[in-house]
């Protein structure tokens, strides 16, 4: 050791980080709410805020030799930054902390993202609904979803995995988006669980493995909007190729010139499905809603409506108040 | 060792001889000096170094100064600031630069026990800093405001008059220096920028052309 008076004592005090985490215990875990592909979500009590119930998402981050990966740090910092806007259709991120006990074991950092707790997600909401949703309810939920998506897109975030499971429904029936903005953080821990990732809301460009952009979320939202009307998934494929067949049976097989380049599957490997009329699948749907959903389920991502286009669609603008 | 910052070369610099001795400094008295010195040696942008100083002040607004080693936390703040502003610092460079600033003339650390314990401490401190900041790494940017103000005020000056007084450099120096004080956390970014600009004009005895023609007695840039 050097004669420096600063380094040796310091090392001990910093090594004692765990003690700080233990004494500063802020949350009490109650029970597991769900296990997603990327981590476990717990219901917990915030001991510093009058026992408020929160949802804690546990994410494991691989530490590199440079410490916490730059991409992870920036993604989480961006989520914190978004919080300042308090967007009504985005789930509140209340705190971020890392767990004390397994700190740096196996070069892994356990991060807890503390979110507001919302009782149910859209999946269970639709399951529990006694009958078809009212037209106004469908419209307001559709608007909520698209507002949230538009907000994310305007902050350069692509959700990538929109589905009823991570759309939360508050007791007053508002919809909030959850589970976004950690794409790169997740990538380091893709193999965390064997939970099957649903394909039903995946757009064709993702299934075909070509580059994608914000338009993926519009496709997924389109599938969810259709589901609000029927309370059943619109395109329920069982595997990648089956999902593509489902899509083409609905919107028709795309023309050869629309087929993206550098794809291993050729367009001729699919039967020449003619497009179906969405009105046959969504009976009693409002004609403007039908037009909106059709504009969202377009094969070519460049021709698909943007989230902002959707919000300005007559389906919403003709029907105040919003 | 290719690409590793040559700390010895930095030390032979004449300026180095006038730099403070951190080992004899009591407590945290030179903490921000340390951040600025190491940041400059690591080649970081001034705004990134200022961000590190802000993280330091925020950290010790929450934590007790006696509980953590000042210089380890300072080094960690530089690492976090580098990552948050997309200007990452390699841990090896950070540790070497920090160690050599404290132990002047000691030479680069061998890859031995002392190096690894330093490095481990910095890695831990980095996580600790993130925890205390709650990952809120978005710091207000008075530098950007100041740049805009300087740009607009520059257009009021005849070119040779602007060149004769170092307004921009002085204002930027004031802003950077204010980061030594925890009071930096108490003011809004545009206010900081305007204060530094006004102070620079006063100190240099420069008056903004046409300002006296304003109807109102007080010029727009003074409060």
TrEMBL record, chain A:
GO molecular function: ATP binding; cyclin binding; cyclin-dependent protein serine/threonine kinase activity
InterPro entries: CDK (IPR050108), Kinase-like_dom_sf (IPR011009), Prot_kinase_dom (IPR000719), Protein_kinase_ATP_BS (IPR017441), Ser/Thr_kinase_AS (IPR008271)
UniProt keywords, alphabetically: ATP-binding, Kinase, Nucleotide-binding, Serine/threonine-protein kinase, Transferase
SUPFAM superfamilies: Protein kinase-like (PK-like)
Gene3D superfamilies cross-referenced by the UniProt entry: Phosphorylase Kinase, domain 1 (3.30.200.20), Transferase(Phosphotransferase) domain 1 (1.10.510.10)
GO cellular component, one term: cyclin-dependent protein kinase holoenzyme complex
Gene Ontology biological process: G1/S transition of mitotic cell cycle; regulation of G2/M transition of mitotic cell cycle; regulation of gene expression; signal transduction
Top-level taxon: Eukaryota
The protein's Enzyme Commission number: 2.7.11.22
Annotated Protein kinase domain residues: 27-316
Family assignment from sequence similarity: Belongs to the protein kinase superfamily. CMGC Ser/Thr protein kinase family. CDC2/CDKX subfamily.
Listed name of the protein: cyclin-dependent kinase
Source organism of this protein record: Leptidea sinapis
UniProtKB/TrEMBL annotation, chain B:
Pfam families listed in its UniProt record: Cyclin_N
Keyword Lyase in annotation: no
UniProt KW keywords: Cyclin
Coiled coil: none
BP terms from Gene Ontology: regulation of transcription by RNA polymerase II
Residue ranges of domain Cyclin-like in the record: 33-131
Molecular-function annotations in GO: cyclin-dependent protein serine/threonine kinase regulator activity
Family: Belongs to the cyclin family. Cyclin-like FAM58 subfamily.
Protein name: Cyclin-Q
The organism of origin for this protein: Leptidea sinapis
